[in-house]
Amino acid sequence: MATGKGKAKSSGTSGRAIGQVLQSAREQMKMSQGGLSEATGMPQAVISRVEGGQREAPRFETVARMAAGLQISLDDVAAACGSGDGKSRKIRSKSNMPAVAAEARAIQRELRALQRRVENLLALATSSEPRRKS
Cα–Cα distance between 19 and 86 in angstroms, integer? Predict the structure, then answer.
């Protein structure tokens, strides 16, 4: 049931608890609010308000998009909120983003080293060319 400016009534789990769970999951992934904003296409201000509990009952679509951006299921969000038993649980991210990021950095280092080698070889090749007589 909608109240006021399109906000739904809370049905047990507070917006603050949902926000804390989503923020915790984002921090576990070492992702910034800006990064989540890019991943979801949502404004960073909305993410900040949800995480800060400033939305009494965040819209389902908002929570679903944030969970998808964090690569966690809505079941995990509900379980971490405690599902009414008053106990929160830590979310296990299904993502291996830290490992992927480390591999990407290693590849970037290798590419830079190869680029330097190519530049050195080109410099050597151009400096050792015989000069043409005019």
Answer: 15
55: left (phi over 0), alpha (psi -120 to 50) or beta: beta
CB atoms within 10 A of CB 84: 9
What backbone phi and psi angles, to 5 degrees, belong to 79? -65, -40
Chain centroid to Cα 62, Å, comes to 15
Burial class (CB in 10 A: 0-12, 13-18, 19+), 58: buried
3-state helix, strand, coil in the chain (%, to 5): 60, 5, 40
pLDDT digits (tens, 9 = 90+) for 26-39: 998 899 999 999 98
Which pTM was predicted? 0.54
One-letter amino acid of 66: M
